[in-house]
Amino acid sequence: MTPTFRRADRADLEAIVDLLADDALGAGREDASRPLDERYLAAFDAIASDPNQFLAVVEIEGRIVGTLQLSFLPGLSRLGMTRGQIEAVRIAAYRRGSGLG
After folding, report:
1. Can you tell me the distance from the alpha carbon of 40 to that of 23, in angstroms, rounded to the nearest whole number?
2. How far from 84 is each of 31, 43, 91, CA to CA, in Å?
């Protein structure tokens, strides 16, 4: 059961939203109902079209069990170094505590 990390595609969006909604914070701020809210589709399209964004999923045996978003941000400090910001890290409830995150 080796995890596979890859760039998310639009077909992964429902699974990603389900992961975002499946914790104490997400339950109050996300909407995992179907069909998905159009704002999720618009946000995914904006992320996918931005070369400074990397939305990843983690699959095990063909099932999405995790996600994260990595944003590359330009900065002035350190002589204009680009830095990465990690957001929205989620692991499926049944995989939490396994070290996957």
Report:
1. 18
2. 27, 19, 20
